[in-house]
């Protein structure tokens, strides 16, 4: 197993940006890759520090790419044009520099909480780059998240990213879906005690109606925490790998 | 020499935050400390990667603390309440966890460019915590910096931090000084070919008039780059240490 | 939670040496500490990459200190005087620099495989520094380990550390115990399918006879792998913390 | 500029092994590479921490690869078969995984002190992999180094690597050269106050006699320290790049 802590100067974000990458020992020229996104408050090392990512990368013989999210909600905003950076700079940079395939059938995106939102958003908007999406306990409705007292994100921080009712509306996953009509394979899970469980059920109903057999709901127990995610990440990566 | 890459979860910034710290081998219980701030686009490792910081820490027997700045201009904003974080969380955390003195006479702040602005701002506003300030090629006038076509910072990013004419005005170094009337020792330098040289001369005249013998201007050649700063950092740290 | 990647120049080992440290957020001046040793082929980051160490450090409110072992078997040899380094340089350095208690009642040592051997050895030889020992799947008999075809360690590497029959004999855990007659609390576990299970049973019988109520055997299932250790580390740290 | 801290499990060394790599931003598929070796007591981060390596990598548009040396003298020994690891595992691994050319005309090796010895040794023995060698203040005579009271390396450590008079003899740079008669380009420098200056002059006379125009001696002032090396590394990398 090779672990790479990469840091490169990005022109989009005007700073050095960290991505942690795990590559199996099978010496391929072009690995299948999972872009694995973290949640609010976490960083590029969080997945490694909570879950045995290397063992899973070896088990499924996939590279796993964990970029820092900078609390930017994987969205373009005035302070951090994160979405554009991710699609236009990060993906080609990593695929060009490391032995990572750039074919859509080899690129999958997954994430948890804010990263689950990011996986759905980046995935749906880029079917020519990404073929499978796994959303773990995603922020399924950003307006509800904004107003939920259990949300860890301060209102003024949220409002610097989604700075108008129109921007909130345009960035709802359901509206993004309706705009592009993607037909990728999607897996969704959300613990039955998660404070965003209801919003996830609404999204589930919408997506299974639209995607039919391409949609998979994984029913799991638990709350919005690493206890839930560490129990299910093996199954999620297995679904992406098959 | 001990090098520490620290990462801790901050309640102010709602994320993990990195600080690189260098501690000499003299086994003191309470080192004098230089809080060394970086410029726009850099991070907590930039000083180490451009200048022989460890050799200088050993030479002057001081700890050097290099926090990441996240392009936040060392200022409170909706997205990143950096200034409050620095003063209320970072300083006590580092002083409490590491063998760093918390006495003002042992704490100095220095920085380059945006970090030079940060050093003057954080220093002037906290004379009970910090006794000496060294500003290398600081952003001496943030309004001019905003409008200068040579500035590397996009307007929309700048405007998320300084989001009104009043906020710009309140955060000008000269206005901060006039508000608190600090009497710390201040060193300022700026290369003669720096694109912010004129603004630095204005600030120089203001500060030498206010601070008299407590103010030192170090005349240096060069532009706004590491070539200039690497030539002068030894002298700057020596001035802080004496 | 604070994560520290420390690197310092050691006079014993004549090189820079890495130790990963995790400190809870409870802002104590002197944390109880677990010195957590890794096995052959691993390094200072291995525990973090396989087990949710930070969650456990928070759960038990203890600092966890994970030094790199450099395949040195936690033993003094001509190439690497590791044991002396650990006791005379690493422990005082870390206890002096970080908020770690230096009282024996607050310092515990644990490890897995080669690190389980190290925990027993360093622990037994230093009752004035360490009060509890947890050995997970330890190399319980180094001579058997040397000659076991399932051992991952090449003979010539082993023989540079234990370079005579006398040195092997002197460094057997049972002989170390008989030499110093320590009376610390000891926990031992070894999976029922571990290739060193038999040697562990011999050591178990010896230690429970000598230590009586101070000795605890934790019967577990599994082989010599992280699958076994990740299942049991919570219970091991819980035993140390109580 | 991209900075990569890589760590991979090596089958030769039976452990995780760290290599720091710097890659310019010019997005090439196959960069020219300098394998840059450190001296006794240093590690894979030492070059970055003492010299502005990234600026130089950009200036000469070359990747710079800095593996940890583990005090192994870049030589096969019972404890660490470093030489075999470097040639058979490290070079193909890095060239296969990163955008580094594997052509000999694109691969250069350089080093300082013990790393200067390593550069000469690995370079001379592998002309089909490496076309230019730069030795900065190399250990030019390992027997003299062993017996020199100014040497930082303990005798017993040295003797675990070079464990017989024959092994010392076989590993002298002059004898390695005579064995393989390489005809690569070689640059050598050594400060006039270096404690190994005389040995360097002997090697200089030998190599200029054998290599003629392929040999370059760079006369420099200074002692055996980073003060000397930081002044000259720009010129050394420039010589490799031209």
From TrEMBL, chains A, B, C, D:
One of its GO terms (molecular function) is hydrolase activity. The keyword Endoplasmic reticulum does not apply. Keywords: Hydrolase. InterPro entries: AB_hydrolase_fold (IPR029058), Esterase-like (IPR000801), Mycobacterial_A85_antigen (IPR050583). It holds the Pfam family Esterase. The keyword Metal-binding does not apply. This is Alpha/beta hydrolase. The lineage of its organism: Bacteria, Bacillati, Bacillota, Bacilli, Lactobacillales.
């Amino acid at each position: 197993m090779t672990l790479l802590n990469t840091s490169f100067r990005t022109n989009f974000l005007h700073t050095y940006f960290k991505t942690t990458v795990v590559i199996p020992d099978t010496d391929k020229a072009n690995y299948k890759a999972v872009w694995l996104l973290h949640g609010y408050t976490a960083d590029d090392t969080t997945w490694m520090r909570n879950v045995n990512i290397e063992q899973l990368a070896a088990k499924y013989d996939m590279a796993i790419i964990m970029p820092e999210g900078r609390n930017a909600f994987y969205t373009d905003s005035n302070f951090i044009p994160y979405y554009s950076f991710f699609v236009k700079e990060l993906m080609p940079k990593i695929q060009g520099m490391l032995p990572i395939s750039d074919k859509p059938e080899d690129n999958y995106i997954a994430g948890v909480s804010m990263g689950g939102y990011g996986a759905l958003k980046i995935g749906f908007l880029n079917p020519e780059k990404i073929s499978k999406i796994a959303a773990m306990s995603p922020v399924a409705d950003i307006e509800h998240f904004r107003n939920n007292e259990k949300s860890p994100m301060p209102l003024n921080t949220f409002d610097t990213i989604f700075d108008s009712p129109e921007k909130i509306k345009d960035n709802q996953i359901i509206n993004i879906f309706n705009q592009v009509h993607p037909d990728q394979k999607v897996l969704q899970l959300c613990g039955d005690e998660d404070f965003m469980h209801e919003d996830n059920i609404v999204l589930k109903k919408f997506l299974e109606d639209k995607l039919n057999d391409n949609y998979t709901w994984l029913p799991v127990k638990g709350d919005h925490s690493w206890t839930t995610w560490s129990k299910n990440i093996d199954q999620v990566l297995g679904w992406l790998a098959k």
